[in-house]
Amino acid sequence: MTNLGRFGLALITAAALATSACATSTAPSTESDAPSATGTVTLVTHSSFHLPSGVLDDFTKQTGLAIKTVELGDGGELATKLSLTPGNPPGDVAFGVDNTYAARPVRAGVFDEYVSPAAANGAQDYALAGMKQLTAIDFGDVCVNIDTRYFRDKNLPEPVTYQDLAKPEYRGLTVVENPETASPGTAFLAGTVATLGEGWQDYWRALRANDVAVAPNWSTAYSTDFSGSSGKGPKPIVVSYASSPAAEVGKDGSAPPTRALLDTCFRQVEYAGVLRGTTNPDGARKLIDFLLSPAAQATIPDEMYVYPVTRGVALPEAWAKYAPVPPKAATLPADRLADERDGWVRQWRQLMGR
């Protein structure tokens, strides 16, 4: 997820690189009941990670461990950089590798196996097949968003599906992100592959012929080009997130002028894992357990603009009303994403004449 943009809300609370010894981890564990560790646990993450300081303080009170955070760029950069240091990690635990990149570091031997006991309360529903090294923490859905005012004012039916965006009546109305440089663009491309199958190349040819615009990143697409955001740009259709409308609710609580098209969503799930070679494996496991706690999960929507994976965690009122979880978001196996993603992007570049 994001690496998911998250509307500028995510800030890093600390960024310091810890020195790690090259210790070999013990056998895979599925429990975190070792004696309590003391000192510091170093969390390696992406630039969109943020939890309230009070929540992080609760972890310290419960475990005696302070959290030090190391930022390694966006989600793709995080996965790539971790893959270069298996067994000699820059920290103890990683958070923010998503399903579109997960197979790369897992194959490289970056993580120890660990299944948190807390995963049984929802996170296990998002487990990657054959990958016991990663525990789901949150998920978000990349979806087409529309400016409902535009379609009302123009008396134009709102689009519903991927295919609608290629119809003549929507010519020149859509902006997407470049999958070479933006995670939402990669997810949208994967969504077209998952939904349209072998016809995805023809679909992109049709989009190009229909004057689709391509932005370098989510911020430009949403905050500058999209007419439904504060940027009030020229495009009433944009690739963003299922949660985006919740960010557009009026200060008085009035309904947002935007809506996500729930038949155009691709699911991104973010994972945490114990880094192989950590000198504090117990602390790493405890932090993963904590990230699945109701207290930590409850802060995820407002702080990182994604959905919690733990069952029973209530969404903020605006989310429940205007950002419901898409009932049938598209997905692809992590192994297929790892094997074919770069090829899809190369084909996309050729199809778009870039």
Quick structural summary:
Pfam families: SBP_bac_6. The protein is an alpha/beta fold and 354 residues long.
Layout of strands and helices, then pairs:
Layout: E1 39-45, H1 53-63, E2 65-71, H2 75-83, E3 93-98, H3 103-107, E4 135-147, H4 148-153, E5 174-177, H5 183-196, H6 200-209, E6 213-215, H7 218-225, E7 237-241, H8 244-247, E8 258-260, E9 266-274, H9 281-291, H10 294-304, E10 307-308, H11 317-322, H12 334-351
Parallel strand pairs: 1-2, 1-3, 5-6, 5-7
Antiparallel strand pairs: 3-9, 4-7, 4-8, 4-9, 4-10
Q: Mind explaining what this structure looks like?
A:
- This protein is α/β, with parallel strands linked by helices.
- It has two domains: 6-140 and 267-321, Periplasmic binding protein-like II (D-Maltodextrin-Binding Protein, domain 2, 3-Layer(aba) Sandwich), CATH 3.40.190; 141-266 and 326-351, Periplasmic binding protein-like II (D-Maltodextrin-Binding Protein, domain 2).
- The chain contains twelve helices and ten strands.
- Strands 1, 2, 3, 4, 5, 6, 7, 8, 9 and 10 form a ten-stranded mixed β-sheet that branches.
- The chain is globular, with a radius of gyration of 20 Å.
- Residues 1-37 have low confidence and may be disordered.
- Residues 1-23 form the signal peptide.
Q: How can the largest sheet be summarized? A: 10 strands, mixed
How many helix segments? 12
What is the CATH superfamily label of the largest domain? Periplasmic binding protein-like II
How many β-strand runs? 10
| Structural class by sheet pairing and helices | alpha/beta
Radius of gyration: 20 Å
Helical coverage, percent range: 25-40%
Low-confidence stretches: 1-37
Q: What number is the mean pLDDT?
A: 89
How would you name the oligomeric state of the polypeptide chains in this document?
Answer: single chain
Number of domains: 2
The CATH architecture name of the largest domain reads 3-Layer(aba) Sandwich
GO molecular function, one term: thiamine pyrophosphate binding
Protein name: Thiamine ABC transporter substrate-binding protein
Signal peptide: 1-23
Pfam families: SBP_bac_6
